[in-house]
Amino acid sequence: MGEKRTWQHGLLALTLSRFSLSSYHHLVVLRPLLSCSLLDSLEESGSSLTCRSIALYWFRLGFSILSVESGSVTVRVRMKAVGICGSDVHYLKTMRCAHFVVKEPMVIGHECAGVIEEVGDEVSSLAVGDRVALEPGISCRHCKHCKGGRYNLCVDMKFFATPPVHGSLANQVVHPADLCFKLPENVSLEEGAMCEPLSVGVHACRRANIGPETNVLIMGAGPIGLVTLLAARAFSSPKIVIVDVDEHRLSVAKTLGADEFVKVSASIQDVDDEVDKIQKAMGTEIDVTFDCAGLGKTMTTALNATRTGGKVCLVGMGHNEMTVPLTPAAAREVDVIGIFRYKDTWPLCLEFLRSGKIDVKPLITHRFRFSQREVEEAFEVSARGGNAIKVMFNL
User: Fold this and answer.
1) What is the CATH number of the domain that holds 245?
2) Is residue 313, in this structure, part of any structural domain at all?
């Protein structure tokens, strides 16, 4: 792997078939004319490599051959576990997530773990056969944010499955070795892939300085709300209340360690009654609120429910513009803290998993293989929501 090697580039010949989910009336799935066995035989051909992957083609899902350049400080990883994130579903539905817009074919997926198959000449920390979890963002390492230790804010970040950067829902990925973290023996590849969403919760708790005297409110019991719950418990929060519209997800939150939960209505816009219910459920002042839903209503509830001098952390990414009561919050000096991805979280996440302080296994509710039929089904399940929390591909 000493000399630079470029993986063979190109797209498979494709035919169309309908995606059955009715709300995705613009979404179709591209089927490869090449069989999987032929794809496997294409993987090594002389000095070039090919890689089967899942890519977006303007409201379409399809198989492609991905090109990636390797070098002396990178490793080639055979993907074994890749989770579906809410952003993947957003890209499929609308070709955008927040201010990130898909303008050309893009391989999706960024929650991933796998087994190293090849290492660069200068890589000494990892070896062929190591099981690793991948941190999906490659920062420039030179800007003021990178040098200041906040590389998650790098303006030149190359992040898996964030336009126009390809993601990890592929059978092979080349990645910098220092962004691949060896899994402890008792941590599975699926758990390794879960380090990515867990990192969001861990980073949020660090930003909010969660500790044994911090009472926490979490708005939203989706995957990010639940990993934030796990992280807050690991950071020794004495009381955690979680809020959602879905009774099933609230019951899951209870099993994961929430002290109390509050079911609210999605249709009621007056939040005063909800704030009262939440504060009664907490039974004491709310020090920190994590808004993991990213809605105007949840942000308003968060600002109103949090104690004077407390903190509201914006974890969920919602609309670019929302109407919220900032003046009353400012008068009470409620600090509003932005949360964007994470930094330096993988070692701590892996230690939490190794020690058993955090168990992410209950979050993985559905598993699928890397085949055309099961890829379609996996995204249907993830888009429907319902009892699905984390949908995982086993490659």
Assistant:
1) 3.40.50.720
2) yes
Please give the Cα distance from 54 to 31 (Å, whole number): 11
Here the tokens at position 129 are 């056969």
Structure-block tokens of residue 313? 């952390």
What one-letter code names the amino acid at 178?
A: D
Q: Say which DSSP state 10 is in.
A: B
Same domain for 28 and 74, yes or no, is: yes
Task: For residues 356-363, give the mean pLDDT.
Answer: 98
Helices marked H in 235-284: 247-256, 272-282
Range of the domain at 12: 5-194+360-394
Contacts of range 212-216, beta carbons closer than 8 Å, 24 or more positions apart: 212/236, 212/237, 212/238, 213/238, 213/287, 214/238, 214/287, 214/288, 215/239, 215/240, 215/282, 215/284, 215/285, 215/286, 215/287, 215/288, 216/240, 216/241, 216/286, 216/287, 216/288, 216/289, 216/290
Q: What total of structural domains would you count in the chain?
A: 2
Give 51-80 pLDDT, tens digit per residue.
666 665 544 555 554 545 678 999 999 999
Do 130 and 182 touch, CB atoms closer than 8 A? yes
Domain assignment of residue 138, yes or no: yes
Please state, in angstroms and rounded to a whole number, the distance separating the CA atoms of residues 30 and 55: 9
Q: What is the pLDDT of residues 25-58, one digit of tens each?
A: 222 233 332 222 223 333 444 334 556 666 655 4
Do 173 and 111 share a domain, yes or no? yes
Q: Which of 179, 168, 175 is nearest to 74 (CA)?
A: 175
CATH number reported for the structural domain that contains residue 176 in this entry: 3.90.180.10
Closest to 382 measured CA to CA, from 35, 54, 147 = 54
Nearest by Cα to 234 from 260, 204, 262, 263: 204
Examine the domain organization and report whether 104 and 228 are in the same domain. no
> Do 229 and 367 belong together in one domain?
no
Q: Are residues 32 and 157 in the same domain?
A: yes
Question: Is 228 within a domain?
Answer: yes
Alpha-carbon distance of 208 to 276, in angstroms, equals 23
- Asked if 131 and 113 count as a contact pair (C-beta separation under 8 A), the reply is yes
Using DSSP bridges, classify how beta strands 240-244 and 260-263 pair: parallel, antiparallel or unpaired. parallel
